[in-house]
Design a protein that fits this description.
Radius of gyration: 26 Å
Bound molecules: uridine 5'-triphosphate, magnesium ion
Pfam families: MTPAP-like_central (PF22600)
Number of strands: 9
Strand content: 5-15%
Order of helices and strands: HHEEEEHEEEHHHHHHHHEE
GO molecular function, one term: poly(A) RNA polymerase activity
GO biological process, one term: mitochondrial RNA 3'-end processing
Number of helices: 11
Structural class: alpha+beta
Largest sheet: 5 strands, mixed
Protein name: Mitochondrial poly(A) polymerase
InterPro entries: MTPAP-like_central, NT_sf
Shape: globular
CATH architecture of the largest domain: 2-Layer Sandwich
Strand order of the largest sheet: 1-2-7-6-5
CATH class of the largest domain: Alpha Beta
């Protein structure tokens, strides 16, 4: 039965491509929403990202307006700073309804590939539901329900703590679907989210518990905040565990490190699929990673710097050729290396 649970999980879980398509769809909707709210962010949440998503599950999106103004790249026009303002609304709920209403209108009239747009503004959590034809996703767009993002993070953590958790949740979800206990149409039936919560509760109650309770996690996270040393990167000194050996690293350096690691992994991944021919002079593998300009040049988003960078690579290759290293054997039979500069 364990094997069956795992097979079912592998067969029905979201693939990496499908997950990427979900992020892409969010960014397309973000572009549309940006017409009204420059610098807004549309984030996926729910089963698209909490690792409990089944192929074909809906795409829950959160229109995040709180980041507006935090970014340094304000959309400015001359000396005027462009910022949106919610005016004269008696409550946050009404503001949410108004925001979703204009976005719904915009998606309906101008959203490429967005069809069957429904504004469900009187629900407990107001939303705009639509079908995104190019990706095939059924989308629910909400705003002002940050708590749902938090519960997605919590489920992600629970899913990662023990490999049996996701397998059990998937099987219970599939079982419920097979017997019409759940449905893709909203109604009087139990939801996948509720079923997941029940499974998590069950696993918290085992003896010994398979999952920690939220209260226990909270106690542990308190401990983190009380740490006197809170820096962007914390690497514990194995011999003096109270010391952070990367205390000096700033947030911007950490970000740079993460971006470069991601770019380098991407370059290697591309080469795996499309290995440069041995006759071409293109640097590959480690050599490609060691060229400082390459990481940017090979990024998936082509930019204007591309031709400039390829020119730089050509020049660099020429300079490597002219700095050619010569190997020869001296009279004593010893191998020596001399470098022409
Ligand atoms: P969904 O109902 O879409 O559930 O709510 P789901 O987890 O994505 O599962 P499927 O695959 O679509 O059936 C999306 C998210 O909204 C939050 C949860 O984070 C959930 O994952 N939510 C939903 C709540 O916080 N409370 C609720 O009552 C319902
Ligand atoms: Mg969902």
């Amino acid at each position: 039965v364990d094997d069956q649970l795992n097979t079912l999980l592998k067969e029905s879980e979201l693939t990496e491509e499908n997950t990427r398509l979900r992020y892409l769809t969010c960014s397309l909707i973000e572009d549309i929403a940006a017409a009204y709210f420059p610098d807004c962010i549309v984030r996926p949440f729910g089963s698209s990202v909490n690792t409990f998503g089944k192929l074909g599950c809906d795409l829950d999106m959160f229109l995040d307006l709180d980041e507006i103004g935090k970014l340094s790249t304000h959309k400015s026009s001359g000396n005027f700073l462009m910022e949106f303002q919610v005016k004269n609304v008696p409550s946050e709920r009404i503001a949410t309804q108004k925001i979703l209403s204009v976005i719904g209108e915009c998606l309906d009239h101008f959203g490429p590939g967005c069809v069957s747009v429904q504004k469900i503004l009187n629900a407990r959590c107001p939303l705009v539901r639509f079908s995104h034809q190019p990706s095939g996703f059924q989308c629910d767009l909400t705003t002002n329900n940050r708590i749902a993002l938090k519960s997605s993070e919590l489920l992600y953590i629970y899913g990662a703590l023990d490999s049996r958790v996701r397998a059990l949740v998937f099987s219970i979800r599939c079982w419920a679907r097979a017997h019409s206990l759940t449905s893709s149409i909203p109604g009087a039936w139990i939801t996948n989210f509720s079923l997941t919560m029940m499974v998590i509760f069950f696993l918290q109650r085992r003896s010994p518990p398979i999952l920690p309770t939220l209260d226990l996690l909270k106690t542990l996270a308190g401990r983190e905040q009380n740490k006197p040393d809170s820096s962007p990167l914390h690497i514990q000194n194995p011999f003096e565990t109270s010391l952070n050996i990367s205390k000096n690293v700033s947030q911007s350096q950490l970000q740079k490190f993460i971006e470069l690691a991601r770019e380098s992994a991407w370059i290697l991944q591309q080469e795996d699929q499309d290995r440069p021919s041995s006759s071409s002079n293109q640097p590959w593998g480690l050599a490609a990673l060691l060229l400082p300009s390459l990481a940017k040049n090979k990024s998936p988003t082509k930019n204007k710097k591309e031709s400039f960078s390829s020119e730089r690579i050509k020049n660099l290759l020429e300079s490597i050729k002219s700095n050619r290293t010569e190997n020869h054997t001296d009279t004593n039979g010893k191998r020596t290396i001399s470098t022409q500069t």
